[in-house]
Protein backbone atom coordinates (compact mmCIF):
# COMPACT_ATOMS: atom_id res chain seq x y z
CA UNK A 1 0.00 0.00 0.00
CA UNK A 2 1.14 3.53 -0.69
CA UNK A 3 -0.05 6.78 0.79
CA UNK A 4 -0.33 10.42 -0.07
CA UNK A 5 3.36 10.98 -0.80
CA UNK A 6 3.39 8.44 -3.64
CA UNK A 7 0.08 9.74 -4.94
CA UNK A 8 1.51 13.26 -4.97
CA UNK A 9 4.72 12.19 -6.72
CA UNK A 10 2.68 10.46 -9.42
CA UNK A 11 0.56 13.58 -9.91
CA UNK A 12 3.65 15.79 -10.08
CA UNK A 13 5.19 13.57 -12.74
CA UNK A 14 1.94 13.54 -14.70
CA UNK A 15 1.39 17.29 -14.52
CA UNK A 16 4.98 18.24 -15.31
CA UNK A 17 4.66 16.46 -18.63
CA UNK A 18 3.83 19.22 -21.14
CA UNK A 19 0.34 19.02 -22.58
CA UNK A 20 0.10 19.77 -26.27
CA UNK A 21 -3.67 19.95 -26.29
CA UNK A 22 -4.57 23.22 -28.06
CA UNK A 23 -1.02 24.40 -27.47
CA UNK A 24 -1.52 24.94 -23.76
CA UNK A 25 0.85 23.69 -21.09
CA UNK A 26 -0.54 21.93 -18.05
CA UNK A 27 2.59 21.93 -15.93
CA UNK A 28 1.12 24.01 -13.08
CA UNK A 29 0.89 21.90 -9.99
CA UNK A 30 -2.67 22.98 -9.30
CA UNK A 31 -3.70 19.59 -8.04
CA UNK A 32 -1.44 19.66 -4.99
CA UNK A 33 -3.73 22.02 -3.05
CA UNK A 34 -6.86 19.89 -3.44
CA UNK A 35 -4.93 16.78 -2.51
CA UNK A 36 -4.31 18.23 0.95
CA UNK A 37 -7.96 17.41 1.62
CA UNK A 38 -7.38 13.70 1.07
CA UNK A 39 -4.13 13.05 2.91
CA UNK A 40 -5.77 10.19 4.75
CA UNK A 41 -6.04 8.04 1.62
CA UNK A 42 -4.11 4.80 1.30
CA UNK A 43 -4.08 3.48 -2.26
CA UNK A 44 -2.37 0.67 -4.09
CA UNK A 45 -0.20 1.52 -7.14
CA UNK A 46 -2.91 0.55 -9.63
CA UNK A 47 -5.42 2.84 -7.92
CA UNK A 48 -2.89 5.66 -7.86
CA UNK A 49 -2.28 5.41 -11.59
CA UNK A 50 -5.98 5.36 -12.39
CA UNK A 51 -6.75 8.20 -10.02
CA UNK A 52 -3.95 10.35 -11.41
CA UNK A 53 -5.12 9.87 -14.97
CA UNK A 54 -8.75 10.59 -14.16
CA UNK A 55 -7.87 13.67 -12.14
CA UNK A 56 -5.39 15.18 -14.57
CA UNK A 57 -7.78 14.69 -17.48
CA UNK A 58 -10.29 16.89 -15.69
CA UNK A 59 -7.69 19.54 -14.88
CA UNK A 60 -6.42 19.62 -18.44
CA UNK A 61 -9.90 20.22 -19.78
CA UNK A 62 -10.42 23.76 -21.07
CA UNK A 63 -14.19 23.33 -21.00
CA UNK A 64 -15.70 25.08 -17.97
CA UNK A 65 -18.68 22.75 -18.21
CA UNK A 66 -16.25 19.91 -17.63
CA UNK A 67 -15.63 21.28 -14.17
CA UNK A 68 -19.32 21.82 -13.52
CA UNK A 69 -19.95 18.17 -14.35
CA UNK A 70 -17.06 16.95 -12.20
CA UNK A 71 -19.24 14.50 -10.32
CA UNK A 72 -20.44 12.72 -13.42
CA UNK A 73 -17.14 12.92 -15.31
CA UNK A 74 -14.73 12.09 -12.51
CA UNK A 75 -16.38 11.07 -9.23
CA UNK A 76 -18.02 7.99 -10.71
CA UNK A 77 -14.78 6.69 -12.28
CA UNK A 78 -13.00 7.33 -8.99
CA UNK A 79 -15.68 5.41 -7.16
CA UNK A 80 -15.07 2.50 -9.44
CA UNK A 81 -11.33 2.71 -8.83
CA UNK A 82 -11.50 3.13 -5.08
CA UNK A 83 -14.61 1.17 -4.33
CA UNK A 84 -15.88 4.09 -2.24
CA UNK A 85 -14.00 2.78 0.78
CA UNK A 86 -11.72 5.63 1.77
CA UNK A 87 -12.63 8.48 -0.57
CA UNK A 88 -15.51 10.30 1.13
CA UNK A 89 -18.13 12.52 -0.46
CA UNK A 90 -16.62 15.40 1.50
CA UNK A 91 -13.32 14.81 -0.28
CA UNK A 92 -15.13 14.76 -3.61
CA UNK A 93 -16.82 18.04 -2.76
CA UNK A 94 -13.51 19.64 -1.83
CA UNK A 95 -11.93 18.60 -5.11
CA UNK A 96 -14.96 19.79 -7.03
CA UNK A 97 -14.87 23.20 -5.39
CA UNK A 98 -11.15 23.59 -6.02
CA UNK A 99 -11.66 22.74 -9.69
CA UNK A 100 -14.52 25.19 -10.03
CA UNK A 101 -12.31 27.83 -8.43
CA UNK A 102 -9.63 27.17 -11.02
CA UNK A 103 -12.16 27.29 -13.84
CA UNK A 104 -13.49 30.67 -12.67
CA UNK A 105 -10.01 32.13 -12.56
CA UNK A 106 -9.26 30.64 -15.96
CA UNK A 107 -12.46 32.06 -17.44
CA UNK A 108 -11.46 35.55 -16.29
CA UNK A 109 -7.92 35.14 -17.64
CA UNK A 110 -6.42 35.18 -14.17
CA UNK A 111 -4.07 32.30 -14.85
CA UNK A 112 -1.38 33.79 -12.61
CA UNK A 113 -3.71 33.42 -9.64
CA UNK A 114 -4.06 29.65 -9.99
CA UNK A 115 -1.36 28.79 -7.50
CA UNK A 116 -2.76 31.00 -4.73
CA UNK A 117 -6.33 30.00 -5.47
CA UNK A 118 -5.51 26.35 -5.10
CA UNK A 119 -3.31 26.76 -2.02
CA UNK A 120 -4.59 25.49 1.29
CA UNK A 121 -4.79 27.16 4.66
CA UNK A 122 -5.71 25.91 8.08
CA UNK A 123 -9.31 26.72 8.86
CA UNK A 124 -10.39 27.79 12.30
CA UNK A 125 -12.75 25.49 14.14
CA UNK A 126 -16.44 25.77 13.35
CA UNK A 127 -18.42 28.32 15.31
CA UNK A 128 -20.68 31.35 15.18
CA UNK A 129 -20.64 34.90 16.50
CA UNK A 130 -21.21 33.72 20.08
CA UNK A 131 -17.72 32.18 20.05
CA UNK A 132 -16.17 35.63 19.66
CA UNK A 133 -17.49 37.03 22.94
CA UNK A 134 -17.38 35.71 26.48
CA UNK A 135 -20.82 37.08 27.34
CA UNK A 136 -22.48 35.29 24.41
CA UNK A 137 -20.57 32.11 25.24
CA UNK A 138 -21.72 32.03 28.86
CA UNK A 139 -18.28 32.89 30.25
CA UNK A 140 -17.61 35.37 33.05
CA UNK A 141 -14.66 37.75 33.59
CA UNK A 142 -11.80 36.19 35.51
CA UNK A 143 -8.07 36.63 36.20
CA UNK A 144 -5.79 35.36 33.46
CA UNK A 145 -2.76 33.13 33.85
CA UNK A 146 0.10 34.51 36.00
CA UNK A 147 2.26 35.53 33.04
CA UNK A 148 -0.05 38.49 32.48
CA UNK A 149 0.85 39.92 35.89
CA UNK A 150 4.49 39.80 34.83
CA UNK A 151 3.64 41.32 31.46
CA UNK A 152 1.83 44.23 33.12
CA UNK A 153 4.70 44.86 35.53
CA UNK A 154 7.20 44.93 32.67
CA UNK A 155 4.99 47.28 30.67
CA UNK A 156 5.17 50.04 33.30
CA UNK A 157 8.52 49.21 34.93
CA UNK A 158 10.35 52.39 35.94
CA UNK A 159 7.35 54.53 35.00
CA UNK A 160 5.02 53.73 37.88
CA UNK A 161 4.74 57.31 39.14
CA UNK A 162 4.10 58.90 35.75
CA UNK A 163 1.55 56.20 34.91
CA UNK A 164 -0.33 56.89 38.13
CA UNK A 165 -0.28 60.64 37.57
CA UNK A 166 -1.44 60.14 34.00
CA UNK A 167 -4.33 57.95 35.15
CA UNK A 168 -5.47 60.55 37.66
CA UNK A 169 -5.39 63.27 34.96
CA UNK A 170 -7.44 60.99 32.77
CA UNK A 171 -10.09 60.54 35.46
CA UNK A 172 -10.46 64.31 35.76
CA UNK A 173 -10.67 64.74 31.98
CA UNK A 174 -13.29 62.00 31.79
CA UNK A 175 -15.57 63.95 34.10
CA UNK A 176 -15.70 66.83 31.63
CA UNK A 177 -16.07 64.61 28.59
CA UNK A 178 -18.84 62.56 30.17
CA UNK A 179 -20.76 65.72 31.07
CA UNK A 180 -20.64 66.79 27.42
CA UNK A 181 -21.79 63.39 26.12
CA UNK A 182 -24.70 63.33 28.57
CA UNK A 183 -25.95 66.57 27.04
CA UNK A 184 -25.36 65.69 23.38
CA UNK A 185 -26.42 62.02 23.48
CA UNK A 186 -27.03 60.85 19.89
CA UNK A 187 -26.19 64.31 18.56
CA UNK A 188 -22.56 63.57 19.40
CA UNK A 189 -22.42 61.38 16.27
CA UNK A 190 -21.70 63.52 13.17
CA UNK A 191 -23.54 62.93 9.90
CA UNK A 192 -22.80 63.76 6.28
CA UNK A 193 -24.63 63.07 3.03
CA UNK A 194 -22.81 60.96 0.47
CA UNK A 195 -23.04 63.73 -2.13
CA UNK A 196 -21.02 66.01 0.18
CA UNK A 197 -18.05 63.78 0.97
CA UNK A 198 -15.83 65.44 -1.63
CA UNK A 199 -16.14 68.70 0.28
CA UNK A 200 -16.72 67.74 3.91
CA UNK A 201 -17.20 70.60 6.35
CA UNK A 202 -14.58 71.43 8.94
CA UNK A 203 -17.18 70.77 11.64
CA UNK A 204 -17.88 67.24 10.40
CA UNK A 205 -14.19 66.43 10.09
CA UNK A 206 -13.27 67.67 13.56
CA UNK A 207 -16.22 65.94 15.19
CA UNK A 208 -15.55 62.66 13.40
CA UNK A 209 -11.93 62.63 14.54
CA UNK A 210 -12.98 63.50 18.09
CA UNK A 211 -15.94 61.13 18.37
CA UNK A 212 -14.66 58.25 16.24
CA UNK A 213 -18.01 57.40 14.67
CA UNK A 214 -20.10 58.86 11.85
CA UNK A 215 -23.04 58.21 9.54
CA UNK A 216 -22.79 58.74 5.79
CA UNK A 217 -26.31 59.14 4.47
CA UNK A 218 -27.61 57.76 1.16
CA UNK A 219 -24.49 55.88 0.12
CA UNK A 220 -26.62 53.29 -1.67
CA UNK A 221 -29.97 54.36 -3.16
CA UNK A 222 -32.74 53.22 -0.76
CA UNK A 223 -34.52 51.16 -3.41
CA UNK A 224 -31.31 49.31 -4.22
CA UNK A 225 -30.65 48.67 -0.52
CA UNK A 226 -34.13 47.22 -0.10
CA UNK A 227 -33.50 44.99 -3.12
CA UNK A 228 -30.40 43.70 -1.36
CA UNK A 229 -32.46 42.73 1.68
CA UNK A 230 -34.94 40.88 -0.49
CA UNK A 231 -32.05 39.04 -2.17
CA UNK A 232 -30.84 38.03 1.29
CA UNK A 233 -34.21 36.62 2.24
CA UNK A 234 -34.37 34.62 -0.98
CA UNK A 235 -30.83 33.29 -0.53
CA UNK A 236 -31.54 32.23 3.06
CA UNK A 237 -34.85 30.63 2.09
CA UNK A 238 -33.15 28.68 -0.68
CA UNK A 239 -30.49 27.45 1.74
CA UNK A 240 -32.15 26.41 5.02
CA UNK A 241 -28.90 24.72 6.11
CA UNK A 242 -27.32 28.14 6.72
CA UNK A 243 -25.74 28.44 10.17
CA UNK A 244 -26.88 31.30 12.38
CA UNK A 245 -27.00 32.58 15.95
CA UNK A 246 -29.03 31.65 17.84
CA UNK A 247 -29.84 28.50 15.93
CA UNK A 248 -33.48 28.37 17.05
CA UNK A 249 -34.24 32.02 16.20
CA UNK A 250 -31.58 33.32 13.82
CA UNK A 251 -30.45 36.94 14.13
CA UNK A 252 -26.85 36.84 12.84
CA UNK A 253 -26.17 34.61 9.84
CA UNK A 254 -22.89 32.88 9.04
CA UNK A 255 -23.06 34.09 5.47
CA UNK A 256 -20.18 35.72 3.65
CA UNK A 257 -20.84 35.22 -0.06
CA UNK A 258 -24.53 35.93 -0.62
CA UNK A 259 -25.44 37.92 -3.76
CA UNK A 260 -26.40 40.94 -1.64
CA UNK A 261 -23.10 40.97 0.24
CA UNK A 262 -21.08 40.63 -2.97
CA UNK A 263 -23.11 43.41 -4.56
CA UNK A 264 -22.75 45.80 -1.61
CA UNK A 265 -19.03 45.32 -0.94
CA UNK A 266 -18.09 45.89 -4.57
CA UNK A 267 -20.45 48.83 -5.09
CA UNK A 268 -18.50 51.87 -6.35
CA UNK A 269 -20.42 54.21 -4.02
CA UNK A 270 -19.59 52.16 -0.95
CA UNK A 271 -15.92 51.98 -1.94
CA UNK A 272 -15.96 55.77 -2.37
CA UNK A 273 -17.44 56.17 1.12
CA UNK A 274 -14.72 53.93 2.55
CA UNK A 275 -12.03 55.88 0.72
CA UNK A 276 -13.42 59.05 2.32
CA UNK A 277 -13.33 57.57 5.83
CA UNK A 278 -9.82 56.21 5.37
CA UNK A 279 -8.60 59.66 4.31
CA UNK A 280 -8.80 60.81 7.95
CA UNK A 281 -5.87 58.58 8.84
CA UNK A 282 -2.31 59.83 8.47
CA UNK A 283 1.16 58.32 8.68
CA UNK A 284 4.13 59.65 10.63
CA UNK A 285 6.34 57.46 8.46
CA UNK A 286 6.26 58.62 4.82
CA UNK A 287 7.77 55.28 3.77
CA UNK A 288 5.07 53.18 5.45
CA UNK A 289 3.60 50.71 2.97
CA UNK A 290 -0.06 51.65 3.31
CA UNK A 291 -2.53 53.32 0.98
CA UNK A 292 -5.72 54.77 2.44
CA UNK A 293 -6.78 55.73 -1.09
CA UNK A 294 -7.23 52.08 -2.03
CA UNK A 295 -9.73 50.21 0.18
CA UNK A 296 -9.72 46.43 0.22
CA UNK A 297 -12.71 44.17 0.78
CA UNK A 298 -13.27 42.20 3.97
CA UNK A 299 -16.01 39.57 4.10
CA UNK A 300 -18.02 39.80 7.31
CA UNK A 301 -21.42 38.51 8.40
CA UNK A 302 -24.90 40.00 8.24
CA UNK A 303 -27.67 40.65 10.72
CA UNK A 304 -31.43 40.43 10.33
CA UNK A 305 -32.59 41.13 13.87
CA UNK A 306 -36.28 40.52 14.45
CA UNK A 307 -38.61 42.44 16.80
CA UNK A 308 -38.54 41.18 20.38
CA UNK A 309 -35.10 39.59 20.19
CA UNK A 310 -33.08 39.84 23.40
CA UNK A 311 -30.55 37.05 22.75
CA UNK A 312 -28.20 38.95 20.46
CA UNK A 313 -27.68 41.40 23.31
CA UNK A 314 -24.04 42.25 22.85
CA UNK A 315 -22.94 44.76 25.48
CA UNK A 316 -20.10 47.30 25.30
CA UNK A 317 -17.05 45.79 23.62
CA UNK A 318 -14.03 46.53 21.44
CA UNK A 319 -13.00 44.38 18.49
CA UNK A 320 -9.50 43.82 17.19
CA UNK A 321 -8.19 41.59 19.95
CA UNK A 322 -8.39 41.02 23.70
CA UNK A 323 -5.15 40.59 25.66
CA UNK A 324 -3.28 41.42 22.44
CA UNK A 325 -3.57 45.13 23.23
CA UNK A 326 -1.22 44.67 26.19
CA UNK A 327 1.05 41.99 24.73
CA UNK A 328 4.37 42.79 23.01
CA UNK A 329 3.61 40.34 20.20
CA UNK A 330 0.20 41.95 19.68
CA UNK A 331 0.06 45.74 19.73
CA UNK A 332 3.13 46.32 21.92
CA UNK A 333 6.03 46.00 19.50
CA UNK A 334 4.12 48.16 17.02
CA UNK A 335 3.97 50.92 19.68
CA UNK A 336 0.38 51.83 18.82
CA UNK A 337 -0.28 53.02 22.38
CA UNK A 338 3.26 54.08 23.25
CA UNK A 339 2.34 57.54 24.56
CA UNK A 340 -0.19 55.96 26.93
CA UNK A 341 2.43 53.56 28.28
CA UNK A 342 4.81 56.50 28.70
CA UNK A 343 2.36 58.35 30.96
CA UNK A 344 1.24 60.81 28.27
CA UNK A 345 -2.25 59.66 27.34
CA UNK A 346 -3.08 63.17 26.06
CA UNK A 347 -0.54 62.69 23.25
CA UNK A 348 -2.10 59.48 21.97
CA UNK A 349 -3.11 59.82 18.31
CA UNK A 350 -5.76 57.25 17.40
CA UNK A 351 -5.56 58.23 13.71
CA UNK A 352 -1.85 57.48 13.15
CA UNK A 353 -1.73 54.51 10.80
CA UNK A 354 1.91 53.48 10.31
CA UNK A 355 2.16 52.01 13.82
CA UNK A 356 -0.82 49.75 13.09
CA UNK A 357 0.88 47.89 10.26
CA UNK A 358 2.87 45.55 12.52
CA UNK A 359 -0.04 44.73 14.85
CA UNK A 360 -1.03 41.10 15.38
CA UNK A 361 -4.56 41.26 16.71
CA UNK A 362 -5.32 37.53 16.70
CA UNK A 363 -2.62 35.70 18.66
CA UNK A 364 -5.04 33.01 19.85
CA UNK A 365 -6.87 32.15 16.59
CA UNK A 366 -10.22 33.01 18.09
CA UNK A 367 -13.32 32.22 16.06
CA UNK A 368 -14.35 35.61 14.70
CA UNK A 369 -11.18 37.36 15.85
CA UNK A 370 -10.26 39.57 12.92
CA UNK A 371 -6.71 39.49 11.63
CA UNK A 372 -7.16 41.94 8.75
CA UNK A 373 -6.53 45.59 9.64
CA UNK A 374 -9.94 47.25 9.70
CA UNK A 375 -9.33 50.96 10.22
CA UNK A 376 -13.04 51.61 10.49
CA UNK A 377 -15.64 49.04 11.33
CA UNK A 378 -18.95 49.61 9.64
CA UNK A 379 -22.26 48.39 8.38
CA UNK A 380 -24.66 49.21 5.59
CA UNK A 381 -28.23 49.68 6.79
CA UNK A 382 -30.99 47.77 5.02
CA UNK A 383 -33.75 48.98 7.36
CA UNK A 384 -35.21 52.06 8.97
CA UNK A 385 -34.16 51.72 12.59
CA UNK A 386 -34.32 54.04 15.59
CA UNK A 387 -32.97 53.83 19.13
CA UNK A 388 -34.06 50.70 21.06
CA UNK A 389 -34.97 48.95 17.81
CA UNK A 390 -32.00 46.60 17.69
CA UNK A 391 -29.52 49.21 16.58
CA UNK A 392 -25.96 50.28 17.43
CA UNK A 393 -24.64 52.21 20.41
CA UNK A 394 -21.17 53.76 20.52
CA UNK A 395 -19.05 55.47 23.13
CA UNK A 396 -18.14 58.84 21.55
CA UNK A 397 -15.10 59.48 23.76
CA UNK A 398 -12.57 57.79 21.49
CA UNK A 399 -9.23 58.91 22.93
CA UNK A 400 -10.38 59.13 26.56
CA UNK A 401 -12.09 55.74 26.57
CA UNK A 402 -9.19 54.00 24.83
CA UNK A 403 -6.70 55.32 27.37
CA UNK A 404 -9.01 54.30 30.20
CA UNK A 405 -9.64 50.68 29.22
CA UNK A 406 -5.90 50.23 28.65
CA UNK A 407 -4.85 51.72 32.01
CA UNK A 408 -7.72 50.41 34.13
CA UNK A 409 -6.16 46.91 34.72
CA UNK A 410 -3.20 48.48 36.54
CA UNK A 411 -5.34 50.06 39.29
CA UNK A 412 -7.65 48.96 42.09
CA UNK A 413 -10.06 50.79 44.38
CA UNK A 414 -9.10 51.17 48.03
CA UNK A 415 -12.76 50.92 49.03
CA UNK A 416 -15.69 49.48 47.12
CA UNK A 417 -18.84 51.41 46.18
CA UNK A 418 -21.40 52.23 48.85
CA UNK A 419 -24.16 50.73 46.68
CA UNK A 420 -23.93 47.64 44.46
CA UNK A 421 -26.00 49.44 41.80
CA UNK A 422 -23.61 50.05 38.94
CA UNK A 423 -25.67 52.89 37.45
CA UNK A 424 -25.12 55.14 40.46
CA UNK A 425 -21.59 54.83 41.82
CA UNK A 426 -20.89 57.30 44.61
CA UNK A 427 -18.36 60.09 44.11
CA UNK A 428 -16.12 58.79 46.87
CA UNK A 429 -15.73 55.49 45.02
CA UNK A 430 -14.89 57.19 41.70
CA UNK A 431 -12.57 59.79 43.20
CA UNK A 432 -8.89 59.51 42.17
CA UNK A 433 -8.05 59.47 45.87
CA UNK A 434 -9.75 56.06 46.11
CA UNK A 435 -7.62 54.44 43.39
CA UNK A 436 -4.09 53.13 43.64
CA UNK A 437 -1.59 51.51 41.29
CA UNK A 438 -1.39 47.80 42.11
CA UNK A 439 1.88 46.61 43.61
CA UNK A 440 2.43 43.86 42.73
CA UNK A 441 0.35 43.79 39.59
CA UNK A 442 -2.48 41.26 39.25
CA UNK A 443 -3.19 39.06 36.23
CA UNK A 444 -6.51 40.82 35.57
CA UNK A 445 -7.12 42.44 32.20
CA UNK A 446 -10.67 43.54 32.94
CA UNK A 447 -12.94 42.14 30.23
CA UNK A 448 -10.19 40.65 28.06
CA UNK A 449 -9.93 36.90 27.52
CA UNK A 450 -7.66 35.10 25.02
CA UNK A 451 -9.46 34.40 21.76
CA UNK A 452 -12.38 36.69 22.66
CA UNK A 453 -13.24 40.32 22.09
CA UNK A 454 -12.59 42.95 24.76
CA UNK A 455 -15.81 43.46 26.76
CA UNK A 456 -16.55 46.31 29.13
CA UNK A 457 -19.04 46.87 31.94
CA UNK A 458 -19.89 49.42 34.61
CA UNK A 459 -18.56 47.12 37.30
CA UNK A 460 -15.20 46.57 35.60
CA UNK A 461 -14.87 50.07 34.10
CA UNK A 462 -16.79 52.34 36.48
CA UNK A 463 -15.28 55.69 35.46
CA UNK A 464 -16.63 55.42 31.91
CA UNK A 465 -20.23 55.57 33.21
CA UNK A 466 -21.28 53.34 30.34
CA UNK A 467 -24.96 53.55 31.26
CA UNK A 468 -24.81 57.21 30.25
CA UNK A 469 -22.02 57.38 27.67
CA UNK A 470 -23.08 54.53 25.39
CA UNK A 471 -25.29 56.53 23.05
CA UNK A 472 -27.56 55.32 20.28
CA UNK A 473 -26.61 56.33 16.79
CA UNK A 474 -29.20 58.56 15.09
CA UNK A 475 -32.00 56.91 13.13
CA UNK A 476 -30.73 55.11 10.04
CA UNK A 477 -32.49 54.31 6.79
CA UNK A 478 -31.80 51.83 3.97
CA UNK A 479 -28.59 52.79 2.17
CA UNK A 480 -26.97 54.66 5.08
CA UNK A 481 -23.43 53.62 6.02
CA UNK A 482 -22.40 53.68 9.69
CA UNK A 483 -18.71 53.58 10.63
CA UNK A 484 -16.72 53.64 13.86
CA UNK A 485 -13.02 53.58 14.78
CA UNK A 486 -11.31 50.22 15.29
CA UNK A 487 -10.52 51.09 18.95
CA UNK A 488 -14.03 52.31 19.70
CA UNK A 489 -16.34 50.85 22.33
CA UNK A 490 -19.67 49.87 20.81
CA UNK A 491 -22.69 47.74 21.66
CA UNK A 492 -26.03 46.46 20.39
CA UNK A 493 -29.45 47.17 21.88
CA UNK A 494 -30.20 44.70 24.66
CA UNK A 495 -33.66 44.18 23.19
CA UNK A 496 -35.23 44.96 19.85
CA UNK A 497 -38.33 46.87 20.88
CA UNK A 498 -39.36 47.91 17.37
CA UNK A 499 -41.94 46.40 15.04
CA UNK A 500 -39.80 45.73 11.95
CA UNK A 501 -36.47 44.02 11.32
CA UNK A 502 -33.13 45.70 12.02
CA UNK A 503 -30.98 44.49 9.14
CA UNK A 504 -27.38 45.35 8.27
CA UNK A 505 -24.47 44.08 6.22
CA UNK A 506 -21.23 44.30 8.20
CA UNK A 507 -18.70 45.97 5.87
CA UNK A 508 -15.57 47.57 7.39
CA UNK A 509 -13.16 49.98 5.70
CA UNK A 510 -9.73 48.40 5.22
CA UNK A 511 -6.72 50.15 3.64
CA UNK A 512 -4.30 48.40 1.34
CA UNK A 513 -1.30 47.05 3.24
CA UNK A 514 1.00 44.10 2.60
CA UNK A 515 -0.65 42.23 5.48
CA UNK A 516 -4.13 42.94 4.12
CA UNK A 517 -3.00 41.73 0.69
CA UNK A 518 -1.90 38.45 2.28
CA UNK A 519 -5.33 38.12 3.81
CA UNK A 520 -6.97 38.95 0.47
CA UNK A 521 -5.18 35.99 -1.11
CA UNK A 522 -6.62 33.63 1.50
CA UNK A 523 -10.03 35.27 1.39
CA UNK A 524 -10.13 35.03 -2.40
CA UNK A 525 -9.60 31.29 -2.15
CA UNK A 526 -12.37 31.00 0.45
CA UNK A 527 -14.73 32.95 -1.80
CA UNK A 528 -14.04 30.76 -4.82
CA UNK A 529 -14.65 27.62 -2.77
CA UNK A 530 -17.62 28.92 -0.80
CA UNK A 531 -15.84 28.53 2.53
CA UNK A 532 -16.24 31.01 5.42
CA UNK A 533 -13.99 34.06 5.51
CA UNK A 534 -10.68 32.82 7.01
CA UNK A 535 -11.15 34.83 10.22
CA UNK A 536 -14.39 33.09 11.10
CA UNK A 537 -15.54 29.59 11.98
CA UNK A 538 -14.48 26.77 9.70
CA UNK A 539 -16.58 24.06 8.12
CA UNK A 540 -18.08 23.87 4.65
CA UNK A 541 -19.79 27.26 4.87
CA UNK A 542 -21.67 28.04 1.65
CA UNK A 543 -19.98 25.31 -0.38
CA UNK A 544 -23.31 23.75 -1.33
CA UNK A 545 -25.47 26.89 -1.24
CA UNK A 546 -27.84 27.41 -4.14
CA UNK A 547 -27.30 30.72 -5.91
CA UNK A 548 -23.84 31.42 -4.50
CA UNK A 549 -22.17 34.10 -6.67
CA UNK A 550 -18.93 33.81 -8.59
CA UNK A 551 -16.43 36.25 -10.05
CA UNK A 552 -18.96 37.33 -12.68
CA UNK A 553 -21.18 38.79 -9.97
CA UNK A 554 -18.33 40.83 -8.51
CA UNK A 555 -17.52 42.20 -11.94
CA UNK A 556 -21.18 43.09 -12.43
CA UNK A 557 -21.44 44.73 -8.99
CA UNK A 558 -18.42 46.86 -9.83
CA UNK A 559 -20.55 48.45 -12.56
CA UNK A 560 -17.84 48.41 -15.19
CA UNK A 561 -15.19 49.88 -12.91
CA UNK A 562 -12.02 48.12 -11.86
CA UNK A 563 -12.11 49.16 -8.19
CA UNK A 564 -14.38 46.36 -7.01
CA UNK A 565 -12.38 43.60 -8.68
CA UNK A 566 -9.10 45.11 -7.49
CA UNK A 567 -10.35 45.53 -3.92
CA UNK A 568 -11.30 41.85 -3.86
CA UNK A 569 -7.89 40.71 -5.10
CA UNK A 570 -9.27 39.54 -8.43
CA UNK A 571 -7.50 42.12 -10.55
CA UNK A 572 -4.01 43.50 -10.11
CA UNK A 573 -3.25 46.94 -8.71
CA UNK A 574 -2.05 49.25 -11.48
CA UNK A 575 1.40 50.34 -10.32
CA UNK A 576 1.86 52.37 -13.51
CA UNK A 577 -1.15 54.59 -12.84
CA UNK A 578 -0.63 58.34 -12.93
CA UNK A 579 -0.46 60.17 -9.62
CA UNK A 580 0.84 57.37 -7.42
CA UNK A 581 3.59 58.05 -4.92
CA UNK A 582 6.75 55.96 -4.98
CA UNK A 583 5.58 54.27 -1.79
CA UNK A 584 2.22 53.39 -3.34
CA UNK A 585 3.95 51.92 -6.40
CA UNK A 586 6.15 49.81 -4.16
CA UNK A 587 3.11 48.67 -2.19
CA UNK A 588 1.19 47.85 -5.37
CA UNK A 589 4.06 45.73 -6.67
CA UNK A 590 4.33 43.90 -3.38
CA UNK A 591 0.57 43.31 -3.20
CA UNK A 592 0.49 42.03 -6.78
CA UNK A 593 3.27 39.58 -5.99
CA UNK A 594 1.46 38.39 -2.85
CA UNK A 595 -1.71 37.94 -4.88
CA UNK A 596 0.30 36.02 -7.48
CA UNK A 597 -0.26 38.45 -10.35
CA UNK A 598 3.53 38.71 -10.70
CA UNK A 599 5.83 35.74 -11.15
Automatic annotation (TrEMBL):
It comes from the Eukaryota. It holds the Pfam family Gig2-like. This is DUF1479-domain-containing protein.
